[in-house]
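[Automated response] Your request has been received and processed.

Submitted sequence:
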Amino acid sequence: VLLAGVDLQFVDGTPALVHWLIREAERQNVKPNELFCCAGLPLETDTSGLRSAVEAYSHFRLFNIPAADHSVQATKAAILQGKEQIERLLKQGYSIDDAAARIQFKLPLGDDLFVEIARLRAFRAIWAEVIAGFNPEHACSHNTWVQAKVRYPAAGAGHTDIIRATLQAVSAVIAG
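Generated structure:
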């Protein structure tokens, strides 16, 4: 895989995977700002030993925090889980700016275009306020990576599922 060409997403990654990805990026002469990936480490992973390894890689997320579904309650739970993860990373020696860069969220999307746009925009605004509470040095720390999850059209479902997935993707794009 050409590491500079894709945003890699792993599930149940390990610290060994993180070290391998960095070695492979160096072997491929990928610049630190060209490596986009999420290692998908379990949330309880102690990453204090990875801090210096990923320090130069600003787009290398360590954790993916999924919302259970597209409800407001599930989104709120993901935000709370994200805040807990930030606090864990701070205890492991990360700065708030670096901790914020190591997290991404996976948010499933529903079918209502305008509701999903509003939910994603509200999510971003609330997350920015959560991060602001930690007094980051850089304004970009208020932003976060969001992997918007659309429902893939089922085989044989006809055009209904294709239209549904398209509307979900449009809501993600419009919401930023």
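Summary generated for your ticket: The chain has a mean pLDDT of 92. The beta strands are 7-9, 36-38, 60-61, 63-66, 103-108, 145-149.
If you did not submit this request, please reply to this message.
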